[in-house]
């Protein structure tokens, strides 16, 4: 069981690194003006679409890894991690509403202050699970 937990955690780390790298590239391409609605911390439609694709494609290697290195339990544990952390991250922050977004923000400011629609926050774990399952099926086929 310990091996399966380790494989699942490794699969999640692979997913996390994938999301980080791909979203960094998206930030470098779009910048603050492409990632946010004008003058606000609300993410743009383009950023929403990018984040959906990034979440899906970053989850595929995690699913492949869990399928190849673990048994069926590793895949289930990885899915559990994605669902639990995804739902937890969708819980609203009771903090105050963000101020008007200044020009020239860093990616780190964007990460900490961005406001995504609630439906997207709830969709993210589903996207992750779909990507994991795609990856697992690719690993089985190959």
Overview features:
mainly alpha; elongated
Provide a compact summary of the structure.
The chain has 142 residues and is mainly α. The chain contains five helices and no strands. The mean pLDDT is 92.
Question: Topology of this protein?
Answer:
Elements: H1 2-35, H2 45-69, H3 72-89, H4 107-113, H5 118-141
Helix pairs in contact: 1-2, 1-3, 2-3, 2-5, 3-5
Describe this structure in words.
The protein is 76% helix and 0% strand. It is an all-alpha fold. The protein is elongated, with a radius of gyration of 16 Å. 29% of the residues are buried. The mean pLDDT is 92.
The total count of helices amounts to: 5
Biggest sheet layout: none
What proportion of the residues form beta strands (DSSP E)? Answer: under 5%
* Class per helix and strand makeup: mainly alpha
Cα-based radius of gyration, to the nearest Å: 16 Å
Distance between the termini: 25 Å
Helix percentage: over 70%
Overall residue-averaged pLDDT value: 92
What are the secondary-structure elements, in order, as H or E? HHHHH
Number of strands: 0
In terms of per-residue confidence, which ranges show pLDDT below 50 for 5 or more consecutive residues?
A: none
Sum up the overall morphology in one term.
Answer: elongated
